[in-house]
Predict the structure of acetate--CoA ligase.
Amino acid sequence: MTTLSCGVLSGPICCPAPSSARGVRGAAGSSGASKRSGGRPGNGEREPSSFLSASSASASASDSSTSSSSSGSDITASCSSSGVFRGRFGARASPSALSGAAGRVGRGWTGATFGISRAICPLRCMAPTPGTGAAFTNGRPAAGSSQVDLTSVLSVDTRYKTETHAAASAGEQVVEETQVLFEANEEFRKNALVSSTEKYEEMYKQSVEDPDTFWSEIASQFHWEKKWDVTDGKVHTENFDVRKGPIKVEWFKGGKTNICYNALDRHVEAGRANDVAMFWEGNEPGYDSSVTFGNLLDLVSQVSNYLRSVGVKKGDAVVIYMPMLVELPVAMLACARIGAIHSVVFAGFSADSLAQRISDCKPKVVLTANGVMRGTKFINLKTIVDDALKQAKQEGYTVETSVVFANEVATKKEETAWVEGRDIWWQDVIPSQSTKSEVEWVDAEDPLFLLYTSGSTGKPKGVLHSTGGYMVYTATTFKHAFDYRPGEVYWCTADCGWITGHSYLTYGPLLNGATVVNFEGVPTYPDAGRCWEIVDKYNVNIFYTAPTAIRALMREGDKPVKKHLRKSLRVLGSVGEPINPAAWKWYYEVVGDSRCPISDTWWQTETGGFMITPMPGGWPLKPGSATFPFFGVQPAIVDENGKELHGECSGYLCVKASWPSTFRTLFGDHPRYETTYFAPFKGFYFSGDGCHRDKDGYYWLTGRVDDVINVSGHRIGSAEVESALVHHPLCAEAAVVGYDHEVKGQGIYAFVTLVEGVEYSDKLRKDLIAKVRSQIGPFAAPDIIHWAPGLPKTRSGKIMRRILRKIAASQIDELGDVSTLADPGVVEQLIELRDK
Ligand code: 6R9
């Protein structure tokens, strides 16, 4: 048996102070925020956030001075060609800032090479189409361009209809940026899975021209108890066009398989039972364990047998609210093994959020733990679950069984609140189960999991993924985007509460038989070198994290990195938000010693797997660009009228056709699935992101264009935060927007109107923040509360968020036309109150 998550917490633990208000980016923005630092979540307190929320990491030094890098680079950088970079951070990178890299190359980046990248561009029609891009200039609507006309969409959320374009126009600053290309050296390229642009081009072409053959060949490498149906040579059916009927996507229908079998049994049967499947590293250094594929299969089988014993059947939902113990992926795989649908809720969400998700999917069982330590902070998960189950009961749904993992490292069993008859200790019921568990063969189209994500309205969306296509796609993307080689150790820092933890901590790597590192803690505990200590400890070859974590670590300087060898690192990855070139360069030069390509992977909860991503060695990288589409992905950049733009352009990022892991619906709300994603631009899946394609065909994601704020890689709907704020009895109205934040990417900026006669005070500010923490979770707490006696509204009563975004960004001279406001005087008042 394995020794999992046991031991006793010892010794005093010190925690670095959280970042101060200096974390706010933007000239005037920073001063405003610093005056409001009292409004931030409690001093010295660490957020119970996932690793990806490195925002709460300690910070001292300002900008890290990136050391000029060492020799021995495997990836070489090439010299610059001027171009336009559209990044959220807009900071001008002088050519000299990047010249260290360029200087090492000794090979000029020539037009000839651009020729190659143009040739490989899957959207080969690179010549700008006159007129089509006219509405945008570098991602912004050109002067005089028409406002987006989304009024024709099928009942899309009203706010979305009116605000999409405003958000896009309020978007990123466009700056001239020197584009430096980073190219893998000969040796790396020679051994890469996709070793040349020609190979990519050839495979990409087949994947879009004949997706059925392309994906069937890959799918055949998995175990199928029964092969899928083939109709007229097709293994998939789809309708992406609301005008042609209901949106529908199916891949490998009729095929019977099991993702757990493919992720575990298949490797055990191939003689790999004793190979390590997962290294678990606890929050506290010294607490760790390793689990072989054999161990993992035993554990999963035991949990699945238990679930069966309490009546969980194929198609039933199971909610998992657990910290990053080995038991979390185990619980997911156990559900998959018996055909149950898992719904993992990030163990940083509040009781209210958990209750909402429980009431929505009505699980028979909730799997949880009594508590967890994250850094120096103890989080009492059991009381949150108790609260949530009470709330769900009041709303009419009663959970019969709550299985509680006794996490002795964090808290004592005796100190855990208990509801007799409902609660049961994990350790009392799981280890006694048989380690043999029959596999439930499910249809490729049977649901695998539900994962809630924020949208532009208050109610989170239950994104539903099915089994077969998701399995094939996550495995294939993992392999290619990280150029994975058998035997390599891979570390993804994401929590399983987010899609990254599903697709690239659990399913993708395990399907490939990779050894995964699962880390319970935070990147800066006990110090800023923790990540690199872990990299050396397990000889991590592939390291995948989020820009927010990179920025937080970068602020600590190079020393904590250089203290550790990091020789094993071969490929780095980034996910969750656009990575600004300064962070990219630091990650590349300091963390990767200028040796490791960075896969900046663009994708979403909805897409299930990588959509636009580098394939290391396949083509040169541009810092901040996710580069090119994955096999089978057909991106389209459209203008506000839904017209596809060609060549160099900016607009709304859509996808033209299905890919195997397309989400199939929103749980219990197919109409919302259609109106949110397929109605805005007819014939396309709309991602909600803005995007620029440069003259070489590289894709640059520029952030959300809807009312979703991306805080430390976590999607938070502004409506969700607003709804939490107005729950406070003294809050009359709230409007929430995002603003640039140095570490978190975006911070939450809330304009709040109090009820008549109530005095604005610091105490109230804290209470409002506390309200959001308790309603959604600490990671959604507003960074800034801006008192607003009035909000800028049109005569029809719609809040003009465009103006609020400008005020939040201190771009007062860019407010634009305010004459259509019911009361233009409100704007003046808000500007005056900015620092109050
Ligand atoms: C995987 C994940 C999705 C949103 C997405 C976009 C942003 C993710 C990105 C990126 C630029 C990248 N995003 N990866 N933006 N470059 N490499 O994060 O899923 O939580 O659903 O968020 O995150 O805005 O629309 P999810």
